[in-house]
């Protein structure tokens, strides 16, 4: 459910909306990732967690999948003549209810540290706004806060973790995502085919 909610659903929705986006002027797709992608691995042999599950590892996996999807999508859009671009963004360390564990609040002793190293949601939203509106973006960029470790600050184009864009992993993730969602992006800017399972 975690991988499906954070990645597969976005992949399928994008495939179905792309023909409409391409009709528009200066359209773009913004995919929300997280600094947690830096610790992520795509567990192709255990995407559903049946062979072992850790919420933090699988969250990082899904956020890595978001980043790889955004970059691979932009590469494919350019290759096949689309005008739509794809950009990734992350909010840094934003103090939201994501830090709740189930029904439990963030531990009292962690709250001062969270305030020290994080930023309010209003600042965390700025990278997404920049990714969605900045006319200078060409596609393929990652937008995040400009502070230390990308945790907080004003939005800027961020240099991703070294070697994160591994071409074989990106292509395999794309193929697996197509198979799991029955969504197949077209190789030109005219049509996108898909079949829905019920």
Structure commentary:
- It is a single chain.
- This protein has 198 residues and is α/β, with parallel strands linked by helices.
- The protein has six helices and six strands.
- 41% of the residues lie in helices and 11% in strands.
- Strands 1-2-3-4 form a four-stranded mixed beta sheet, sandwiched between helices. A two-stranded antiparallel sheet has the order 5-6.
Order of strands in the sheet with the most strands?
1-2-3-4
What structural class results from the helix and strand content?
A: alpha/beta
The 3D shape can be described as globular
What would the average pLDDT be, to the nearest integer? 87
How much β-strand is present in the residues? 5-15%
Helix content class: 40-55%
**How far is the first residue's CA from the last residue's CA?**
17 Å
The major beta sheet can be summarized as: 4 strands, mixed
Low-confidence stretches: 191-198
| H/E element sequence | HEHEHHHEEHEE
The tally of beta strands, per DSSP, is 6
Number of helices: 6
Name its key features.
alpha/beta, 4-stranded mixed beta sheet, two-stranded antiparallel sheet
Indicate the topology.
Elements: H1 2-23, E1 28-32, H2 55-79, E2 85-89, H3 111-117, H4 121-124, H5 126-133, E3 142-145, E4 155-158, H6 167-181, E5 183-184, E6 193-194
Parallel strand pairs: 1-2, 2-3
Antiparallel strand pairs: 3-4, 5-6
Helix pairs in contact: 1-2, 1-6, 2-6
What's this, in brief?
This protein has 198 residues and is an alpha/beta fold. 41% of the residues lie in helices and 11% in strands.
């Amino acid at each position: 459910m975690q991988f499906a909610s954070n990645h597969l659903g976005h992949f399928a929705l994008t495939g179905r909306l792309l023909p409409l986006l391409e009709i528009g002027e200066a359209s773009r797709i913004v995919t929300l990732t997280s600094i947690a992608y830096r610790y992520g691995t795509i567990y192709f042999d255990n995407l559903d967690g049946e062979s072992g599950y850790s919420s933090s590892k699988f969250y990082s996996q899904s956020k890595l999948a978001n980043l790889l999807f955004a970059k691979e999508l932009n590469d494919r859009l350019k290759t096949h003549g689309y005008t739509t671009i794809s950009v990734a963004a992350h909010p840094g360390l934003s103090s939201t209810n994501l830090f709740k564990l189930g029904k439990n609040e963030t531990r009292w002793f962690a709250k001062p540290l969270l305030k020290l190293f994080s930023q309010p949601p209003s600042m965390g939203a700025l990278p997404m706004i920049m990714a969605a509106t900045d006319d200078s973006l060409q596609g393929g960029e990652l937008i995040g806060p400009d502070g230390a470790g990308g945790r907080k600050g004003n939005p800027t184009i961020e240099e991703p973790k070294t070697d994160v864009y591994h071409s074989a992993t990106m292509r395999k993730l794309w193929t697996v995502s197509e198979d799991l969602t029955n969504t197949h992006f077209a190789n030109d800017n005219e049509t996108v085919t898909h079949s829905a399972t019920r």
